[in-house]
Design a protein that fits this description.
Length: 487
């Protein structure tokens, strides 16, 4: 009998994420991934482990679950704020870093990728399928490949065919990102231990679902996720709800299932998925109607949240439009706040003028250009900030965010947090870090579609979804699904 210590499995890990809105004309470049879009910058090598271990990110959950049993080979993790198509140069460069590391790593027992699922590039409508294929070519057919995806993934049959196991977030707001990474490890471990790949099945829904109707905390969509089984070894099933603003053919909700009986399980889930998607509520009020409704609801106290769902930078919009702000001011709103409005010019002017100074802000349209019908606003500088703070809410707790030089501007009864960089308003710290307490306001307007609910909805009297013009279109009837690569 040998006294040699068994060699621990060697697992290569990497993350490359982008949620692409093809309505956004601004391409996503390599430097955008290096910067990270306001929060986690590109991280490479051993630094990955300590940086991501404590965070609610899929790769962090994978690390915590796997590191006691395996030797991890960390390559990189990178993400850019959702925007236009990823340039070929950025895609090729980052994918090559992963593939080259895989080729140089020697014998591997498995590979784990933390991807998004809705990446569109200049050359590929299905960015994740191309990443998976290139990694597969680098590691060969025998090495197990496990991948985690965002709930908004546009999953294709080609992608599922390449990966050996796929796990997908089950909550929106995404409170289980780390758990999704841990489930990916459970499936990868089973493959390593048995040397076998699980049976798999893929089904695609027939009804696209707008982002504003995808919240999993209530209604038919919430009930749908209650049907999913726990991941136990090779047995798993997950649902992706899709990202329609990518405007590609595969932007339907879908089901992936693994293990014995996976086909029957997938069939049952996709039937339930179609029913839930058809029944999901997508009520959207105009900015004027939403402000009037919020004003009425708060006459006897409490706070109403207005969600500017179509100007969410987390879905590729500019986070710069002025329609809801104009409606708040013209509607005579008192004790109101809005955030986060991305206006680098106004933020810079506020820092030049100082607290108490006056700044004239040009209200902008969906594509970021001045919108003449909205006019200009002269606002008082109430506070200034570097824009760097640590999130405190459940979804991004302990994540350091950087909006760039920021300011709290005031016009009558309306306060506005203005940033230099685009970032979704997910966390109350976006307001509190600059000295404004959102829970003390009657109306709080957030440029977010659903993620804000994790930190704002628990104490809100009501939440109202607002339909103001924006690039994160939440009316499926206003989208065409005909995007094709340039070449």
């Amino acid at each position: 009998m040998s006294d040699a210590t068994p060699q621990r499995p060697r697992i290569l890990i990497a993350g490359f994420q982008h949620e692409t809105n093809t309505l956004n004309p601004s391409p996503t470049r390599y430097d955008d991934f290096v910067d990270g879009g306001g929060w986690m910058p590109m991280t490479q090598g051993a630094a990955l482990i300590d940086a991501f271990r404590p965070l609610n990110i899929a790769l962090g959950g994978f690390v915590r679950a796997a590191e006691v049993e395996v030797d991890l080979i960390p390559v990189l993790w990178t993400s850019a704020e959702p925007s236009g198509v990823v340039t070929a140069e950025a895609f090729d460069r980052i994918t090559a870093l992963i593939c080259d590391a895989a080729k140089e790593a020697g014998a591997l027992d498995g590979v784990y990728l933390d991807l998004h699922g809705a990446m569109v590039t200049e050359r590929f409508s299905d960015g994740e399928a191309e990443i998976a294929q290139r990694v597969r070519d680098a590691i060969g057919p025998e090495t197990p490949l496990a991948i985690s995806l965002d709930l908004h993934a546009n999953v294709s049959a080609a992608f599922v065919g390449i990966a050996d196991a796929v796990t997908i977030y089950r909550t929106y707001p995404h409170l289980d990102m780390d758990e999704t990474g841990a489930r990916a490890w459970a499936m990868l471990r089973a493959m390593i231990e048995t040397g076998e790949r699980p049976e798999k099945a893929f089904r695609q829904s027939t009804t696209r679902l707008p982002l504003s109707a995808q919240c999993t905390e209530f209604g038919p969509i919430g009930a749908l996720y209650d049907l999913l089984p726990e991941t136990t070894g090779a047995c798993s099933a997950d649902i992706a709800l899709g990202f329609p603003p990518a405007r590609i053919a595969d932007s339907f909700p879908s089901v992936v299932a693994y293990g014995t009986g996976s086909a029957a399980r997938a069939d049952a889930l996709v039937r339930a998925l179609n029913e839930a998607a058809t029944a999901a509520d997508n009520t959207l009020l105009s900015p004027e109607a939403a402000v009037a409704r919020a004003t009425a609801l708060t006459e006897d106290g409490g706070t109403v949240i207005l969600a500017d769902v179509q100007d969410n930078s987390g879905a590729g919009a500019t986070s710069a439009t002025g329609w809801l702000l104009r409606a708040l001011i013209d509607g005579g709103a008192e004790d109101a706040a809005l955030g986060i409005l991305c206006d680098p010019d106004a933020a810079a002017a506020a820092h030049r003028m100082g607290v108490g100074g006056k700044v004239t802000m040009r209200l902008r349209g969906a594509n970021g250009a001045p919108e003449p019908s909205l006019g200009d606003l002269t606002m008082e500088v109430a506070a200034l900030s570097s824009g760097r703070f640590t999130c405190t809410g459940e979804m991004q707790r302990d994540v350091v965010t950087d909006f760039g030089p920021s300011a709290l501007l005031r016009h009558g009864g309306v306060d506005v947090v203005v940033s230099s960089a685009r970032h979704q308003c997910i966390d109350q710290a976006a307001f509190t870090h600059i000295g404004m307490e959102p829970q003390a306001k009657r109306i709080v307007a957030v440029k977010s579609t659903v993620h804000f609910r994790a930190d704002f909805a628990p104490w809100a009297k009501a939440v109202i979804n607002v339909k103001a013009p924006g690039l994160a279109v939440c009316d499926i009837n206003e989208l065409t699904f005909d995007w094709t690569p340039d070449d």
